[in-house]
């Protein structure tokens, strides 16, 4: 049987995760303070939880901002009007519509330069009060995409979705986005109460890498901690291959914080000239799905 490029990437991801998990386990045995990292030993969350929402842009809208707002049920956005265009099913090649996000030359994070990229929040009713949930979506970087030093990608959030150096105190909420880094290395980028870093924690960097010119499926599962306990979990699968499981996470100190939905957030940066894209670039996003256990 001939192995496809996707099959080959899945095998590579699986082997990388296995070796990294073994290395992390060995390191944890020597350093009690090291984060608990391994790889998921359960099925992808999309196979274990029922589907509760599958939003997509409304192609009947006359412009992108309306299409995003109507399709994702959101009123909170930035950069969408200027930097997003709607893609039909033929443009994505997936049989479903998507979004193309532009990163204009010389831009990085919204607080650093003229805004590049875009952001919005989507809170599907099926996640209301969720303490565990699953998000899947697909991303495609344009062929030859220059990753520079890194940039943000969407993930799940709760509460006030802290970011940009916000304090995380266990009551304000959390955000669990992804990042691309140099040469397309992937990672979880998290704002949680158990982190020590001021500007978010980089977790699992290099356990997978993003190619250019082809779709990659990201799958993220969050299990919130019991208030007062450090028993939260995060799991990641890439193209169906298990790549990262992190334990001992404190997302919250009160059960009023739950998983609210999608923090769509994508831009270059970091701050400063070294993070800025040197040319106009874009990435495509499609096939957003939310899964959660029945109440």
From TrEMBL:
Q: Which residues form the signal peptide?
A: 1-29
Please name the Gene3D superfamilies in this protein's record.
2.60.120.200
Which Pfam families does UniProt cross-reference here?
Answer: Polysacc_lyase_14
Q: Which UniProt keywords apply?
A: Signal
Occurrences of domain Polysaccharide lyase (ranges):
95-288
Entry annotated with the keyword Signal: yes
What name appears for this protein in its UniProt entry?
A: Polysaccharide lyase 14 domain-containing protein
Organism, scientific name: Halomonas shengliensis
